[in-house]
Amino acid sequence: MGARKRNSSEKIKEARKTQAIAKLNSCPTSPRKMRLVADLVRGEDVYKALNILKFSPKHASRNLEKLLLSAINNWEQKNDGEDATSANLVVKSINVDSARMLKRIQAAPQGRAHRIRKRSNHVTLIIDKA
Fold first, then answer.
1. What is the model's pTM?
2. Rounded-to-integer distance, Cα 5 and Cα 37, Å
């Protein structure tokens, strides 16, 4: 491995020591609906983001609230029980990717059929110190 590559990989490892990651796989909500809620909390303080998700009427906000709580818990375990309230944590990034798609058939008039695509998504949430 070259010196530049080694130095850059060491920088990435150092940056990841303060981060915590939580993933939600195969959530049965369409990615578009989940992205609408994810955009509300991207870049926010974690406790402000929890309040936003708790009082949001969207169905996807329940899953994201659980995921954010999991990321906070992961951060506390990674940092030897350090309190997350005093750490000034923010939602650094949140990515919503599409997952498997269930394909179904719905009967239509005159012997035809329409395809229904039941979409699902994967969510990756990263929190870090501000």
1. 0.89
2. 37
